[in-house]
Amino acid sequence: QVQLVESGGGLVQPGGSLRLSCVASGSSFSIAAMGWYRQAPGKQRELVATITSGSSTNYVDSVKGRFTISRDNAKNTVYLQMNSLKPEDTARYYCKQGLGLGYWGQGTQVTVSS
Questions:
Q1: Cα–Cα–Cα angle for 85, 86, 90, rounded to 5 degrees
Q2: Distances in Å between the alpha carbon of 88 and those of 3, 27, 108?
Q3: Among positive and negative, which fits the CA dihedral 88, 94, 98, 102?
Q4: Under the phi-then-psi rule, with left for phi > 0, alpha for psi from -120 to 50, and beta for the rest, what region is 87?
Q5: What is the pLDDT of residue 22?
Q6: What is the pLDDT of residues 7-42, one digit of tens each?
Q7: Residues paired with 24 in a beta bridge
C-alpha cells in the first residue's frame, strides 16, 4: 500500500514563498504520475499541477509562472515550489500518486494572509 506524506505548509504573507514536499512509500514512484491538488473550505478540490514519470508538467492557469512542480525519484519525493503567493492560494494542499483513484496524502495547510 502506497503512503504519501506532505510537509512544508504554513502561514506566509502575500508575495512570499513556500516549498511543499511529498514523500511516497513503495517502489512504483518512479513510473507514476504525480499531482498536487488543493481544497479551500466550501470549495471543490482543484488540480494544481501534475508531473509525469518523464517529468512533463502541467499547471492550472491561476498558478502558471508562480508554481513549479518537480520530482526526485531517488528520494521518492515530489515538490511544489510556490512563489508570489496570493491570498487566493490559501487551501489545504494534497499530494496524489497515480491516475484515476490513485493514492492520497493527508494534506498540508497553506495560509496566505497579512
A1: 95
A2: 29, 35, 16
A3: negative
A4: alpha
A5: 98
A6: 999 999 999 999 999 999 988 999 999 999 999 999
A7: 4
Whether the CB-CB separation of 31 and 51 falls below 8 Å is answered with no
**If 0-12 CB within 10 Å is exposed, 13-18 middle and 19+ buried, where does residue 31 land?**
exposed
pLDDT at res. 27: 87
pLDDT in tens, 33-87: 999 999 999 999 999 999 999 999 999 999 999 999 999 999 999 999 999 999 9
pLDDT at 99 over 90: no
Kindly state the cell numbers that stand for 105: 496524502
Q: What is the 3-state secondary structure (H, E, C) of the chain?
A: CCCEEEECCEEECCCCCEEEEEEECCCCHHHCCEEEEEECCCCCCEEEEEECCCCCEEECHHHCCCEEEEEEHHHCEEEEEECCCCHHHCEEEEEEECCCCCEECCCEEEEECC
